[in-house]
Amino acid sequence: MADTSGQAPAETETRSHAGCSLDMDDRQFSDWTRLLESRTGLFIAPERRSFLVSGIRTRMRKTGYEDYREYYDHLSIGYFQIREWSLLVDQLTVHETCFFRHESSMKLVEEVVIPSVFERQRSFNAWSVGCATGEETYSLAMVIDDFCAARESDRYFGVTGTDISLPSLRHAREGLYLVRRLQGIRPAFQGKYCQSETDTRFRVNPNLRKRVCFTQLNSRDVERAPFANLDLVFCQNLLIYYDRERRAQLVNQLAGCLRPGGVLVLGPGEILDWQHPNMEKVRYPDTLAYRRTD
Ligand SMILES: C[S@@+](CC[C@H](N)C(=O)[O-])C[C@H]1O[C@@H](n2cnc3c(N)ncnc32)[C@H](O)[C@@H]1O
Fold it and tell me: Are residues 74 and 24 in the same domain?
């Protein structure tokens, strides 16, 4: 994983590599940030320049490039270098996550969203946006399945996880995690939804995996994605990558994917002063959520 500390990686940043300067000048920095922003929405602030440089250099080392400009040209000409572009984006994004990461938000889903949706219909469709390696998506599936299992059976649910990172999605589809990842999962759910695979790994059980699907989606393309009439959109720790304007734009688009009564759950503090004519705030401690009212 790239250095996310934002600290300059000391003198190596300007040291010569195979005879080429590794300084990134202002013009190159602005070209790179513009390319990233236009293709992915990722915003790299000037103070995170060393983070960008370090990520690009890691990929350049792996592909044998010695010059930022050459590597930039290689990636920026059309979309032909899809694989390398995806590996670079992967290097520049943080995939940290865990099961039931934000407990209060999961409680809100469990105690408020799921019962109210199933009160008026038999199906429940949820979307985990920026799902990384899938822990958030499976956590949602666990709470919905648990609700259904405790009641009469003719209920259907599905949870879709999307992310820009192909390696993360591959991991998510496998549903295979280190045993220490069990930590966030309550014991009853561990017994019900997790099966031991080896001494060090467990896998999410096949019945739950059947309810979940993972697909690549760049959040810049949400408007063109086939998501509509959803009951829950869960989006945490993704907006932090965007500037204020792009955050509001994305949140508006996510709100547009909900059915009336559907709920959008964000991370607390991830957007400030956001308002939408058809969304009202859901009051629940330590959460940031909005319900579609029209
Ligand atoms: C820190 S993880 C958050 C995972 C999970 N939502 C959570 O809260 O635990 C952020 C994820 O957002 C993804 N991401 C970043 N930019 C993206 C974009 N433009 N489109 C889709 N996903 C993106 C990253 O690949 C990463 O997996």
Answer: yes
Ligand 1 in contact with 95 (CB < 6 A)? yes
Q: Is the pLDDT of residue 114 over 90?
A: yes
Ligand 1 close to Cβ of residue 1 (< 6 A): no
Q: What is the domain-level CATH number for residue 196?
A: 3.40.50.150
For ligand 1, say whether the CB of 105 is within 6 Å of any of its atoms. no
Phi, psi of 233, rounded to the nearest 5 degrees:
-120, 120
Is ligand 1 within 6 A of the CB of residue 165?
yes
Q: In degrees to the nearest 10, what's the CA dihedral of 212, 216, 219, 220?
A: -150
Number of domains in the chain: 2
Q: At what angle do helices 26-40 and 49-63 cross, to 10 degrees?
A: 80
Tell me the CA–centroid distance for residue 131 and ligand 1, in Å: 6
Q: Which ligand 1 atom is the nearest neighbour of the CA of 130?
A: 12
CATH number where 69 lies: 1.10.155.10
220 Cβ closer than 6 Å to some ligand 1 atom: yes
Let me know whether 40 and 162 are in one domain: no
Model-level pTM? 0.89
Ligand 1 center to residue 72 CA distance, Å?
23
Beta pairing class for 176-178 and 156-163: unpaired
Tell whether 1 is covered by a domain. Answer: no
Mean pLDDT of 58-67: 93
Structural domain including 174 reads 103-292
For the chain, the average pLDDT equals 90
Q: Which residues pair with 43 in a beta bridge?
A: none
Tens of pLDDT, residues 154-202: 899 999 999 999 999 999 999 999 999 999 999 999 999 999 999 999 9
Q: Which residues pair with 178 in a beta bridge?
A: 201
| 84 and 175 assigned to the same domain | no
Q: Give yes or no: residues 144 and 48 share one domain.
A: no
Ligand 1 center to 218 CA (angstroms): 10
